[in-house]
Amino acid sequence: MIGLLIGIIGAICLWWFEAPLWSSVLLLLLGIAWFIWKVRLSTIDRIDRMDGREFELFLEEVFTALGYTVTVTPASRDFGADLLLETPDGWTIAVQAKRYEKTVGLEAVQQIAAAVPYYQAHEGWVVTNSNFTDSAYELAAPNQVRLIARMELEELLKEAGYKR
């Protein structure tokens, strides 16, 4: 929306200062193109551009939309969990959010496995916009940690009402 406004204001300014008409039209078209490109970005594409904390806060919105009561832990000294979820029937889940460009390894599983007893949660989840290594899956199974990789995250986003 900001790009569109800048394009409109810029076009008006160019016209006001008697710049050639084509420059005003070009600036306006660039603003419109930028706006359309921004709107067309899928939610997962936007997640790929977030930093870690933005991803955590975004997941707060997603899980709230899915019906969970969400508590965001402090940015530092979170003891392995970024979010704490509670279902309406009192089931608690500690969540580790990993906004990564590379594959998520077993360290994330270790962190959330340690966070579950610390926060007295019933289970732990690791959510990523990427995928997990085989060793992460191997460690997650006996520790009752749910790994939510990119494809499942996209399904959660869809379920929560986000586009694509």
Task: Walk me through this protein's architecture.
With 164 residues, the protein is α/β, with parallel strands linked by helices. 52% of the residues lie in helices and 15% in strands. It has helices at 2-16, 21-40, 43-48, 52-65, 106-118, 134-140, 150-159; strands spanning 69-72, 83-86, 92-98, 123-128, 145-148. Strands 1-2-3-4-5 form a five-stranded mixed sheet, with helices on both faces. Helix 1 (2-16) packs antiparallel against helix 2 (21-40) and helix 5 (106-118) runs parallel beside helix 6. The longest helix has 20 residues, at 21-40.
In summary, what is this structure?
With 164 residues, this protein is an alpha/beta fold.
Summarize the SSE layout with pairings.
Layout: H1 2-16, H2 21-40, H3 43-48, H4 52-65, E1 69-72, E2 83-86, E3 92-98, H5 106-118, E4 123-128, H6 134-140, E5 145-148, H7 150-159
Parallel strand pairs: 3-4, 4-5
Antiparallel strand pairs: 1-2, 2-3
Spatial shape: elongated
Beta strand count: 5
Distance between the termini: 20 Å
The poorly predicted ranges are none
Overall mean pLDDT score? 88
Beta-strand content: 15-25%
Structural class: alpha/beta
Tell me the number of helical segments per DSSP (H or I, 4 or more residues long).
7
Instruction: Give the ordered list of helices and strands.
Output: HHHHEEEHEHEH
Lateral arrangement of strands in the main beta sheet: 1-2-3-4-5
Query: Whole-number radius of gyration?
Result: 21 Å
In helices, the fraction of residues equals: 40-55%
Quaternary state of this entry equals single chain
For the sheet with most strands, the description reads: 5 strands, mixed
